Amino acid sequence: VFAVLQHNTRLYLANVVNLSQELMYQQVLRRFAYFNAIKLSDPPPLFDLLMIALKEEDKIAEMNTSLLKQKSEMLLEYFCIHIDEQGKLSNLPVILDQYTPDMDRVPEFVLSLANDIDWENEKECFQTISASLGIFYSMRPPLFPNPSGDGLQFYRK
């Protein structure tokens, strides 16, 4: 979460999560409506992603799936987030070249798109979507341990 940076004879303690979140937010604003895409090879259904994030709240997942399907055209046009007619998430934007976000955080991101966006006010809508993307793409410790070394024991359990 933290990194030590040196400049000349000074050392600085930096919060990598906060810095990367702000970097990603600024990149979203810079690339607005001009994103390349990360194509998901096996597009997950929004409903399944929302169920993971909500921990089995069927009604809320259904409502959120319906909302995101309604907003899919705008999400694709401005943010390169593609939700198909079946409600599957098939594209995510490229925010920073040669960087892929932690895909374990996709359910959390989809839930954020459904719950944290001000869909009524255009400026607020674009800002809150950009903020959600910034959070999703930020560099954070992984949700699950690396499956090599000691982390492999976690998966065997």
UniProtKB/TrEMBL annotation:
Residue ranges constituting the DNA mismatch repair protein Mlh1 C-terminal domain according to the UniProt record: 2-141
Domain of life of the organism encoding this protein: Eukaryota
Recorded GO MF terms: ATP hydrolysis activity; ATP-dependent DNA damage sensor activity
One term under GO cellular component: MutLalpha complex
Biological process terms in GO annotation: mismatch repair
Protein's recorded name: MLH1
Naturally occurring in which organism (per UniProt): Ceratophyllum platyacanthum subsp. oryzetorum
